[in-house]
Input
Amino acid sequence: MNGSNPRAPLSVVTDDLTLTVDGVDLEVRSTGDRLFVEVPTVRDAVRVARGLPRDGDASGLTALLTATDLTTEVRVRGRTVAVIGADARSGRLASELGVAPAEVRIGGALGAGASGLSAVAGALRRRFA
Output
């Protein structure tokens, strides 16, 4: 950050904010310098990802978040699957997936998938019990 940037740092406070992308409602909450975008299910996350423009350039969003000292966590079923902005640490996996400069959290993605499968199994047990 430099002293000439009047926007940095920025604090975001949300009480009740919902974004809708491709028909999926995403709850947004904040701790001031970190935004959390909550995606309800893995299926919804795939739907949102497919609904984003293919030729979109995430570097503009990343630059804005970094300049304002903000970080956004994308969470699926309560698990962080991606980080964008000031605290993101992009790696080889993000480059291979073509999502750099975002940070991909494979453990979060696997955990969200397992949680989704567990929810489906539970629903089936209740349905056929």
Observations:
- The chain has a mean pLDDT of 82.
- The chain has four helices and six strands.
- Residues 17-118 form one domain.
